[in-house]
Amino acid sequence: MNTWAVVLAAGRGLRSGRSLPKQFFTHRGMPLFLHSLLTFARIPALHGLVLVLPPDCDFDAVNALIRDAPSLGLPCLLRAGGESRRESSASGVAALPADCDAVLVHDAARPFVTPALITRVLEALEQGSRAVIPGIAVTDTLKEVDAAGTVRKSLDRACLRAVQTPQGFAAEDLRKAHERVRGAGVQVTDDAGLMEYCGIPVTVVPGDAGNVKITTPEDLRLLRPMPAYDGCGPDRLDVQTPVPRSGFGYDVHRYGGNRPLVLGGVLIPGDITVHAHSDGDVLLHALTDALLGCICGGDIGLLFPDSDPELENIASGILLTETLERCLAAGFRPEHADLTVIAQVPRIAPHRDAVTDNIAKLLRLDRSRVNLKATTEEKLGFTGEKKGIKAVALVNGFLTPASDVAGRLGLPRTFSNRSGQSPDRYFDTTGGGVSPATGASAP
Ligand code: MG
User: Fold this and answer.
1) How far, in Å, CA of 35 to CA of 22, rounded?
2) Ion ligand 1: residues, CB < 5 A
């Protein structure tokens, strides 16, 4: 079967008592609709996904959120919904490829849907059912009442089921049902209602009590922290729970270029020079990579390519500050940095305090949280032959994933090496060894 899932996220969420539609509420660092998409994407039988959104939604922003999330690994089409749930479902169904022969329709406001439940619905479809819905037995006693609230009769709950999504259908049946009711004024609250209207038998499979629908403010209590780690990775843990992160960085620079040696933003007097596109601060480059490691932010070359003319001879403290801002925006706060310079020359000891002070200042940490070590490689290798210098850095800290969905999006670079860079900031980020007048560091 060529099976697709349509996830409906086009509702206005009026009953939730908030202005933001409920399917956009953030839970464990992601909007609710993404939880559903990711769960469906884990079902091997699915060929693709259709996400139906409010027509006035910012589709580019949703696309960016999906790109930013763990990979779906499936095509995901975005479609605008309609005024009613039925119209939104029809819009999603219309987006299905012609050769799709089975479809699951799911409400994005049910973020706790499990692969087991989806599989139950799929299996019933594969066994020949044309319409399948998950339902759970009703445990409360149910009464039918009149307009005044007086009980007319008790209902036999043994015959009742509370119905959930995903609901599974033969795609052709659902397409035809939508065509048949279009313009007919038929009011249904789920897609199975269309099948009933068309006289197609609907099969009920066991639902899942955890597959609740977020509808009212009371339901939002379900979005509180979940105690157990579910193996989905720290970025899906609850937004309030800081998780430890570590990042490692390593960098090398060759001696003999046209940049004077700078370490940790401090000019090292002497005749040693380095090859570099930036100022060649090997220690800050390793530290920048360590910070990026903490937020899974790639590496320094990705963020600040050495082909970018704007970055020529830029003070690496500016790159570090830019990176730190990204870390803070992503919810990561460094707590400690341990750094090692590996070089035969120069001797680091005379500069240790100044370099440590400046790095603590750059990281906005107390000096007691920054450690600088130095070693040689016993005259072995390129450092031993005084051909270059290397540095390694380890940063530890805590990540509290941004509660604001927008905070998870990529941020544009905020500095410029040519213009718009305040001299104050130049000084702040690089300590004493920088000339604000030229925008070039002393190296
Ligand atoms: Mg470098």
Assistant:
1) 13
2) 251, 285
